[in-house]
Every structure is written in structure tokens, then in C-alpha cells.
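Repro case for the chain-ordering regression, as requested:
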Amino acid sequence: MKIQLFTPAFRVDECLREIKECLEKGWTGIGFKTVEFEREWKKYSGFEHAHFVNSATAALHLAVKILKVQNGWHDEEEIISTPLTFVSTNHAIRYENMKVVFADVDEYLCLDPLDVEKKITDKTRAVMYVGLGGNSGRYEEIAELCKKYRLKLIVDAAHMSGTKLNGKVLGTEADAVAFSFQAVKNLPTGDAGMICFKNKEDDLLGRKMSWLGINKDTYQRDQGSYKWQYEVEHLGYKYNGNAIMAAIALVQLKYLEEDNAYRRQVASWYDEHFKVYFDKIKPVPIFPNCESSRHLYIIEVNNRDELLEKMNEADIFPGVHYRDNTEYEMYSYGKGLCPNARRLNKRILSLPLHLKLTQEQVDYIARQVIQYAR
Ligand SMILES: *Cc1c(COP(=O)(O)O)cnc(C)c1O
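-- result from build under test --
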């Protein structure tokens, strides 16, 4: 049997029940379950505002767009970000014609506050922070820096559904936090995301912008008699989430804590195997006081590419998170500015981590890693 990096797990009957409600009601679009999921997410996470959208990529774009408009930022002003991420993170900055300034990562594979501070100029407007694999990294120090230099803080929390720092959900003091509910993330649907703005005005504008700039959504209009008489105030996008995805999300949210606990269990099995081999297999550490969602289990080895091949021969299919973005042509102007990311980029490997993985499989994977890592 092939062991994949990710295998989504759904509570099928419960999901179907929720979806059935949408189909019977004849309401599959924005509203109904989307409103219910936003309410449940706020209750779970403690965020004051939450807007359900069709992906984290859309959420990240809205974050940059709304903060840019509301704060009067200009094209070519700068947002500091990481080279070790999915390209969505940095594309979101480019969609708004702002400049991605790359800062280096630390041992947590998250932005290093020391390097971020060095990269601040009089054109810097925000920091885009990615909690890689669910790890908080030095998030608190980054938040402090943002306060000190009056920068906005955007968090790409695509991996962080359920991550806690000092016992509470991470990110409630950030200006905008984007979550992904894409099929392989910790709270899987088909494709969906959430944007949580700190300010009410940003949230309101975000809602309009995700629905083509229309000032009332269809659901609200359906309540009154002037349903056709909406106003179009902005050149918005079609970024809203839909009730079918929200129906699945409502079920998955109920199990998020339990699911993440299992992910941490898998991670601790791996840790247990590797602890006597620390000279050749180095698991990326989790920041103290962080309860990671454990989206990923990343190890650092000396012979990454060779190990990947050996694993594939053993029917195990790990991943790499991520290719250094400055290796892509469009971000190549940042090449050489982040030596740590560049070095780690060639040495890291994400081992299979999902809810269907058994302890026997973890043992088998770990044995292969121990045998072939150098
Ligand atoms: C998956 C992912 C995204 C994009 O999420 P979508 O919901 O697929 O748009 C953004 N950033 C990171 C770090 C991701 O892993």
C-alpha cells in the first residue's frame, strides 16, 4: 500500500446530512450555512470577525487589498515576507502591486525577527507571517516588531487551524489572519478559507469586496422587498464561500481539536523514533508554549534528495515544504538574501502526516528514514 503525504479524512455521513439540508432548502450559495459556520468559527477561535471565502488565496488577497485601501498604501511599497511558503502568500502581495521583500527564516522555518528588523525600510507597510506546518515560530516577537515600527501584521494561517500559543488561538491581535480549508489542510472541505480582520470596518469592506463590491449579499436582500435594489460600490471579486463547503466545514470543525490531537500523537511517535539519531535526523522544533496544529512533520537531513528516492522505492511519498520562492523566476530578485532558507530548502522533508496513518505505518516510515538518512 502506498503511504501518501496527506490523505483527507471526512465524517462522511455527518457531512452528507449537512449538505442534504442545503440541497433540500435549495440554498447552496452564500448565506445559510456560511453564516452558521462563521458564527461557529468565531466561537471556537475567539476572533471577533470572520468572513468565509472560497480559499485562503482569496483571503490573503483580500487582506492585502483591504489594508492597502484603508491605510492609503501605494504601489511598490513593501511587505516583508518569507521565501519558504506556498506561492499564494507572496502572490497575494503582488496582486496589489506591492513589493515582496524577503526576510530569512529561523530554526522554526518561520520568519526570523532579527532579519525582519534588518529588512524594514521607510517603505515597509506590513509583515506577512506564515506559521509553517502549524508552528507559531517567534510570532510574538514579530507582533512586537510590528507594533514598534507601526507596521500591519498579516498572518497566513493556512496551516494553523487550531494552533494555540500560550493556551489561546494564535493571531487574534493581528490585523488580518487567513485560514485555509482546502482539501489537505487540517480542517478540510473541498476548497474554502476564512479571513479574520481585527477591525470592523476592514471586515465590512472585505465582505463587500468578496461579493463584487455589492453592498448587500443575496441572502440579506432576500429578507426584504427591495431585493433587486443593491448598490455596487467597488470593483470587487467573486471570492465568497458557499453553503455546501460551509456544511462540510461545520462538521469538520467539531472534530478539529480531536484531529489535531491525533496529529500531535503521530508527531510524537516520529519524535520517539528519531531522538537517538539526532546527529543525522533533525525534526524541526516546535516553539515552546505553542500547541501546534501539526499540519506538517518536517525533518532536516544531509541527503534529502537521495532519501526521497529511497522512500519512494519503499512506497512512501513525503513532500517538501517548500521550494525557496526566490528560486522562481518572478521572485529571483530576492536570491541570496535569505541564506538560511536557501540552505534548509535543500535539506528538509515533510513526512506523511494525516488521520488515517496508523502507528505501524509510522514505525515503518521511521525505520526507512533511519536506514537511509545520512
Ligand atoms: C494551502 C496554502 C495556501 C493557499 O490555500 P488555498 O485555500 O488553497 O488557497 C496559502 N498559504 C499556505 C502556506 C498554504 O499552505
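Ordering looks correct now. The mean pLDDT is 96.
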